[in-house]
Specification:
heterotrimer; A alpha+beta; B mainly alpha; C mainly alpha; A: alpha+beta; Dipeptide-binding Protein, domain 3; D-Maltodextrin-Binding Protein, domain 2; 4-stranded mixed β-sheet; 19 strands; 22% strand; globular; B: mainly alpha; 2 domains; 13 helices; 76% helix
Chain lengths: 532, 311, 337
């Protein structure tokens, strides 16, 4: 017995000893080398990668995703104007790798590729694929998997080499991406990319009032970032495959704004799938897509987006713009009202509600993550309630996306009296929120479902009813795509989200939809942040 | 015995206090923060820390938390359902998880014991081999695979039971998850019962009972089973705790808003209060079940009872 | 023992056998304990078969990945999710690359390629992945058993045998460790430790042995009051002699069986650990991670799941047959029968 134990113990020690240490590589030097980064970009076969993901994702052609922004004059997509600024060339990648090794005087370069394990299956697959392509080019790759929170904290601390990360656009303008990589943005520019040329292009673009010049400057800036400096390496743009029951229509997907579920028609009582639950009902504190979608249903803004992403008035009856484009005056509808869960009118929606809302989101004590929406996206300088139903906003400078960005929950009105009355309980359940949108939040069982019902007092309700709108919309929280698909086929659900594995078998099913999301996945290379 | 039980309860309370402290320390060491979102600035993070009192020194937070816990206040969630009272979140989900878990435990115990006893009584026959094979497959096929198989054949193909959990059929829609969850406990209990029973049947006192001419079935019930069950209870305790505190994969597959899923999400989202609450619910159950096992032990086994009375 | 007022009868001390019967002693040659064990083990057919298959799987885990031209991380773009196709057998209509009546290989333009176990969703050869995964999982299984026995059993033995304050203290310590959900502990380990097998073993060391500890302790409690222990103690045996040569052989059976059942737990814990960044780093596979990956395609391409589950189940079945044989062979009560 003792002998056996001794043998086993020795085995264990030997096993532990097998994990040998390698000579440390100085990442602070390695990733400053442009050829190292260039070879990474050339090595990745993005087309093959998205084919493997098979979930509707598309290969990235630059750091700005498809269908994000359109040319102010021609209406062309940014990507059409910019063209492809990334290249796949495995032979060139090998060549560049060899060159980089020579320049650095090393035999091999090791890349620790950081990625998140709880950010979706496509991230895990993509990381494994990228790892393989980089090894083909000659690199030694260690895949380092972490959970999202830890991954983000490693990035913030600069304690990483290369990380597969993503950015979701907040609004339909290249600026939402370009701002990430300027040297002054220490929150998001984790690799501390520092280029005077790039900084100047972005600063100039943001300062100019000439929209065409702005567009051209952004095109130039992307080239500098991706094609000249290879600072951040675009990989793919997320897709989303799903099946929507054929008789249902009216779900409007936006790749650079909140999806619009207000106009569902074809069935009276609809059950939809969501893979995440609402996090918070408070439109000033929420940060996630699911919460925002729910809020656009039971709340309303001055404008809303149509199926093409163009703004149209919602609670605003009329919009007046001053000649220089800096002063907007909104006349709020007389029939815009706040209603409680039972559908009873509590108060009218007034201009003061918007003033309260914009003041509240900027209140430092609230620490809202979207506080900058008012100042940096809407570019609002001051706002006031001229009278009960007239809301006036003065902008810092003319802003082409001002009206469409008003359709975002952060800019929606609040009822201050109600919030004060509810105190800490505000927005924690269906009973502690008010509605002013086309739907009312009827119930919310965290982790299970939430239900919306028609708001009879919403001004456009009659039109919704006439169009055959769904009077009840249930969102069911389901994370497992396989059982969800069974439930859909059994007829208990009206939409279902598909994983990449399920796409091939369901491509020809009626109602199959292949949507494009705004998320762009890219490799953040730690250029200057290492060991600071 | 009473004195022993009293002493044991006091010790358990002390153990729980230590566990709470350890949990708090572990939370402190967790990487990242609950607010570590891409879009939050450093200044805002500082503000949020201050708002939720996370900037206070460790011991202050710990004693405040312990004090509030005695009042039933488990704090609020930071990330999962912002500003929700954690006690509410846990209460609702724990009920469902306990329901499924109890059902699974019942199934697991009944089938496990039947399989184990059958195998032991027919030691080295084909029945024994079959029972062994079933239990070995039961532990080597993960519960989520069983769950999806059940979903597909029993619910989707045959339509006998609902595919997913729903509040309109709270009992029938929990049958499949309970069966899926019970597979591994069945296997474990069967296996353990079998080997324990074989041991007992080979022991000298059973030989004595047999030679005394006690009828076979009577011998099995009064002598063999009783001695078999004592160690079986030891394995059942932790299994029960694991079942009652929910399984995140099973909850995910069947869309059950249970506590297992909540805890995983809480750990991933660094939602400290929710993690501590879920983990502590587990700890309390564990300690209570261990306490009960210890006491039950004494009731079933006279030798231990006497030893403890003397102690 | 107190009932001594028994009166002896006259015929109490007479031979039971009739006077004419001859009593002949049989002579047994002395055999060592080890030989006894081996002889007993040999007799058990099931255990022998189990042992042979285990050896076969170990051999496959070593040579399997090298048997074809693929590597476990090689990605074949455009050849994802192919079903198994084996030369020779394909003519029988089995493993011929057909899925739902369509020859996938022809469809994806890979007519001259044979993936014996098919490919996964990323176009990697499952054969090499399964066998290299088995290699990892076997090491984890070994570690789990060793940890169970070295830490769990010894802890339980000591705690159960000494009882009193020692027991109380040791049990409270184990309760604290086990009272904290494993997930919380391993999540933190994920931050401190690098990915790899060493870290998995460390995680198992922290949490894997407690089940065994409880069982060993319960067994000791049951055995330690029995007569042979008393006899040994009366003969002046030391505490450690009693623990290791009297009690240990008697609880070995249960210990072996329990340790076998800790194997799948360890293998699946590893899959969860890889998710946390603590297990074997991707693209390296283990049986656990292959099963949890395969789950995602269970309803569409079940072969990705079935193959690792099958290997796992066979492995477990054989471990159990083997352990059963071992248990019977080690059992002193069975030896002299």
């Amino acid at each position: 017995m003792k002998k056996l134990l001794a043998v086993l113990l020795t085995l264990l020690i030997v096993l532990a000893g097998c994990a040998k240490k390698e000579a440390a590589q100085d990442n602070a030097v390695v990733f400053k080398n442009e050829d190292v980064r260039k070879a990474i970009s050339y090595a990745i076969d993005r087309e093959a990668l998205v084919k493997t993901l098979n979930d509707g994702s598309v290969a990235a052609e630059g750091i700005i995703p498809f269908k994000l922004a359109t040319n102010p004059s021609t209406g062309a997509d940014f990507r059409d104007d910019a063209g492809k600024v990334v290249t796949y060339d495995p032979d060139k990648a090998k060549e560049l790798y060899a060159q980089a090794c020579e320049e650095l005087g090393v035999k091999q370069i090791t890349i620790d590729l950081l990625y998140g394990t709880n950010e979706g299956d496509s991230v895990i697959k993509a990381a494994e694929q990228i790892g393989y392509y980089l090894e083909e080019a000659g690199y030694k790759v260690n895949l380092v998997s972490k959970q999202k929170k830890e991954r983000l904290s490693l990035m913030t601390d600069g304690d990483y080499a290369v990380c597969l990360t993503r950015w979701g656009p907040d609004y339909a303008d290249p600026q939402t991406y370009m701002d990430l990589f300027v040297s002054t943005n220490t929150s998001n520019n984790s690799g501390r990319y520092n280029s005077e040329k790039y900084d100047k292009l972005v600063a100039d673009a943001e300062a100019t009032t000439d929209m065409d010049e702005r567009w051209a400057l952004f095109l130039e800036a992307e080239k500098v970032l991706v094609e000249e400096d290879y600072a951040d390496i675009p990989v793919f743009q997320a897709g989303g495959a799903m099946i929507i029951r054929p008789e249902i229509s009216g779900i409007e997907f936006h790749s650079a704004a909140v999806d619009n579920y207000r106009h569902i028609v074809g069935k009276d009582n609809v059950t939809l799938v969501t893979n995440t639950d609402i996090i918070y009902l408070d439109n000033h504190v929420a940060t996630d897509g699911t919460s925002f979608i729910a809020q656009t249903m039971f709340l309303a803004g001055l404008t809303e987006l149509d199926a093409n992403g163009q703004w149209k008035p919602d609670l605003a009856e009329t919009v007046d713009v001053s000649e220089d484009g800096t002063v907007y005056t909104f006349k709020i509808r007389d029939d815009a009202n706040w209603v409680n869960k039972n559908g009873e009118v509590v108060a009218p929606v007034t201009a003061q509600d918007f003033v309260d809302s914009w003041d509240r989101i900027l209140d430092p004590d609230l620490a809202s993550e979207y506080a900058w929406w008012i100042t940096d996206v809407l570019l609002a300088d001051s706002w006031e309630a001229v009278d009960e139903k007239t809301f006036k906003v003065t902008l810092v400078k003319p802003n082409g996306i001002f009206l469409s960005c008003l359709a975002f929950p952060s800019a929606f009105p609040i009822n201050k009296a109600f919030i004060e009355e509810q105190g800490d309980q505000y927005a924690t359940s269906a009973d502690t929120v008010l509605a002013c949108g086309p739907y009312i939040l009827d119930s919310w069982t965290p982790g299970y479902s939430y239900e919306m019902k028609f708001n009879e007092n919403y001004f456009d309700n009659a039109a919704y009813v006439a169009a055959g709108g769904a009077s009840k919309v249930v969102f069911r929280v389901l994370e497992d795509t396989q059982t969800a698909l069974m439930e859909y086929e059994a007829g208990n659900l009206d939409t279902v989200i598909l994983s990449g594995e399920q796409v091939d078998a369901n491509k020809d099913v009626p109602g199959y939809v292949d949507r494009l999301q705004g998320y762009l996945f890219y490799l953040s290379v730690n250029i200057n942040h290492y060991g600071e | 015995m009473k004195k022993y039980i009293f002493k044991r309860i006091l010790i358990s309370l002390a153990t729980l206090f230590v566990i709470l402290l350890v949990l708090f320390i572990l939370m402190d060491l967790m990487p990242g923060t609950p607010f570590n979102d891409e879009k939050l600035t450093e200044a805002q993070k500082v503000l949020l820390y201050a708002k939720y009192g996370l900037d206070k020194p460790f011991y202050v937070r710990f004693f405040l938390y312990a004090k509030n816990m005695l009042k039933g206040d488990l704090g609020v969630s930071y990330a999962i359902n912002k500003n929700f009272a954690v006690s509410e979140m846990v209460k609702e989900r724990l009920g469902i998880s306990i329901g499924v878990g109890a059902m699974a435990m019942l199934l697991g115990t009944v089938f496990g014991l039947i399989l184990g006893i059958l195998a032991a009584l027919n030691h080295n026959s084909w029945i024994d081999n079959l029972c062994s094979a079933i239990s070995v497959i039961g532990v080597s096929v993960p519960s989520y695979v069983c769950a999806l198989l059940l979903c597909y054949y029993v619910a989707y193909r045959l339509g006998w039971l609902p595919i997913l959990y729903n509040t309109e059929q709270p009992v029938t829609s929990l049958i499949l998850p309970a069966i899926a969850l019970s597979v591994s406990p069945t296997a474990n209990i069967a296996r353990f019962t079998r080997s324990e029973m074989i041991d007992v049947m080979n022991s000298d006192y059973i030989l004595l009972v047999q030679s005394k001419g006690v009828k076979n079935w009577k011998m099995i019930i009064t002598h063999v089973l009783r001695n078999t069950l004592i160690p079986v209870i030891t394995v059942m305790g932790p299994i029960l705790v694991n079942l009652l505190t929910g399984s995140s994969v099973i909850e995910k597959i069947f869309g059950i808003p249970g506590i297992g899923r909540l805890m995983i999400t809480a750990i991933q989202e660094n939602d400290y209060n929710v993690t501590i609450a879920c983990a502590f619910v587990y700890s309390v159950m564990y300690i209570v079940v261990m306490l009960l096992v210890d006491i039950l032990y004494g009731v079933i086994d006279p030798r231990i009872r006497i030893a403890k009375e003397e102690a | 023992m107190t009932n001594l007022d028994h009166e002896f009868q006259e015929n109490d001390f007479q031979f039971a056998h009739s006077a004419g019967e001859k009593l002949i002693d049989k002579n047994y040659s002395a055999t060592s304990y080890a030989k006894d064990v081996w002889n007993n083990f040999k007799k058990n057919k099931g255990a022998l078969i189990g042992a042979v298959i285990i050896v076969f799987i170990i051999v496959m885990a070593i040579i399997g990945p090298g048997m074809n031209e693929f590597t476990y991380k090689q990605i074949h773009s455009g050849q994802e999710c192919l079903v198994p196709r084996i030369p020779g057998i394909e003519k029988l209509g089995l493993f011929d690359g057909y899925h739902n009546g369509v020859n996938q290989y022809a469809q994806k333009g890979a007519t001259d390629v044979y993936y014996w176990f098919g490919t996964d969703t990323q176009g990697r050869d499952i054969w090499t992945r399964v066998w290299s995964g088995t290699r990892v999982s076997l090491i984890i299984a070994l570690a789990a058993v060793v940890i169970d026995i070295v830490i769990g059993m010894v802890y339980g033995l000591v705690s159960g045998f000494f009882g009193g304050m020692v027991d109380s203290f040791m049990q409270r310590f184990a309760e604290i460790l086990n009272g904290i959900p494993t997930l919380v502990i391993v999540t933190l380990l994920g931050m401190v430790l690098p990915a790899g097998i060493t870290s998995i073993i460390f995680a198992l060391m922290l949490t894997g042995w407690i089940g065994m500890e409880r069982i060993a302790r319960a067994q000791v409690l049951k055995v330690k009051e029995q007569e042979f222990v008393l006899a040994s103690r009366t003969l002046g045996a030391g505490k450690f002699r009693i623990i290791f040569s009297e009690i240990l052989p008697n609880i070995m059976g249960q210990v072996i069986v329990t340790s076998m059942f800790s194997i799948p737990n360890a293998i699946f814990l590893e899959a969860y650990l890889s998710f946390l960044g603590l297990g074997v780093p991707a693209p390296m596979a283990s049986l656990g991670s292959l099963v949890s990956d395969g789950y995602k395609s269970m309803t569409t391409f079940p072969h990705i799941l079935i193959i690792p589950v099958f290997v796992m189940a066979i492995l477990m079945l054989c471990f159990n047959l083997f352990a059963d044989g071992l248990r019977d062979a080690f059992d002193p009560k069975m030896i002299n029968k």
